[in-house]
Specification:
- 39% of the residues lie in helices and 18% in strands.
- By secondary structure, the protein is an alpha/beta fold.
- The strands form three sheets. Strands 10-9-11-1-12 form a five-stranded parallel sheet, sandwiched between helices.
Length: 329
């Protein structure tokens, strides 16, 4: 066994901001507060956020995760819709079955839904920039009738687009995309359809933007960069891609410390470390502690800006929170 002095040195540059965004924090709080107020079980349609550790933690508290409402018995238990948003058909089905549901859709995703509805009411066909099959994309496209929204993932998709009326178009974007890739697609849309309408304020969320900018700042300074996040997390995967484009090709995604292949660290003296918007800080701490077992670690936080965004949970759960505080007093 190596003595402390014999461990190889490792400098860890910790990106800031990193980890939970306001929408993820709000969604998790909604499930936790619903469990406190109504007791278990609380059903959650789809993963509340894309992180296995978070999902498993909520399961231990009494949350039951399902993919569709037909998996839920008619027992009056609350149903929570995930932070990614749902098609309109889902709350309609819940209402038809007289289910008690709580919508945990991120307010920034709801903003995109409202934009799409606004343009549709004004007679415009919507072009959505996003990843096919992602829950957020399914939810956004499901706000409007079939055919009202066309999905594009690449500049090549824009080239192949056939639209109903070139002078009556608008575009929206998934909130967790690569800023640079999206800018290229938007440019291609504007070039092909000069009169296309865009959002008043960019759809890519502040947290996605900040985490990508932090990686851009770190990538040229490090030998390798690790992103803590889930394989199905769009924003986490984009961080790996951004690292490779901005100077650090040795970038990888891991869910937690136990998944790390330590052979990957061979020759690495400077490690960039960040976490996707649905990864809790406890997993960052876990990776640093695992690294300390093998390296003489020095940690330096590299902050590009402060985040102070907070999204309120629904009033019926805030009331429950206040009731609990009053009882404790």
């Amino acid at each position: 066994m190596l003595l402390m002095s014999e461990k190889p040195s490792l400098e860890i540059y910790l990106a800031a901001p990193r980890g939970f965004c306001a929408g993820v924090d709000r969604a998790i709080q909604i499930v936790e507060k619903a469990l406190e107020k109504y007791g278990a079980p609380v059903y959650v349609r789809h993963e509340i956020v894309h992180n296995k550790f978070v999902v498993e933690s909520l399961k231990e508290k009494g949350a039951i995760f399902v993919e569709e409402l037909d998996e839920i018995p008619d027992n009056g238990a609350p149903v929570v819709f995930s932070a990614h948003g749902v098609p309109k058909a889902v709350p309609r089905e819940a209402q038809a079955r007289e289910m008690f549901y709580i919508d945990a859709t991120c307010p920034l995703v709801s903003k995109v839904h409202k934009e799409a509805e606004f343009h549709h009411k004004d007679g415009r066909q919507i072009i959505l920039i996003g990843h096919e099959g992602h829950p957020e994309v399914i939810g956004t496209m499901g706000q409007l009738p079939e055919g009202a929204v066309l999905l594009v993932e690449t500049v090549e998709d824009v080239t192949a687009l056939n639209v109903q009326d070139e002078d009556n178009l608008a575009y929206c974007t998934q909130t967790t995309l690569s800023i640079d890739d999206t800018a290229e697609i938007v440019e291609a849309l504007k070039e092909k359809f000069p009169s296309i309408k865009g959002p008043h304020k960019e759809d890519i969320c502040y947290a996605t933007t900040n985490r990508q900018e932090a990686v851009k700042a770190l990538a040229p300074k490090v030998d390798a960069l690790m992103v803590i996040g889930a394989p199905n997390s769009s924003n986490s995967n984009r961080l790996v891609e951004v690292s490779k484009v901005y100077g650090c090709e040795q970038a990888m995604l891991v869910q937690r410390a136990s998944d790390i292949d330590w052979a990957w660290f061979e020759g690495v003296q400077k490690l960039g470390l960040t976490a996707g918007a649905s990864a809790p800080e406890i997993l960052v701490d876990e990776v640093i502690e695992a690294a300390r077992m093998r390296f003489d670690v020095r940690v330096e936080e590299v902050s590009i800006r402060e985040e102070n965004v907070i999204f309120n949970i629904p009033k019926l759960l805030r009331d429950a929170e206040n009731d609990t505080k009053n009882q404790a007093a």
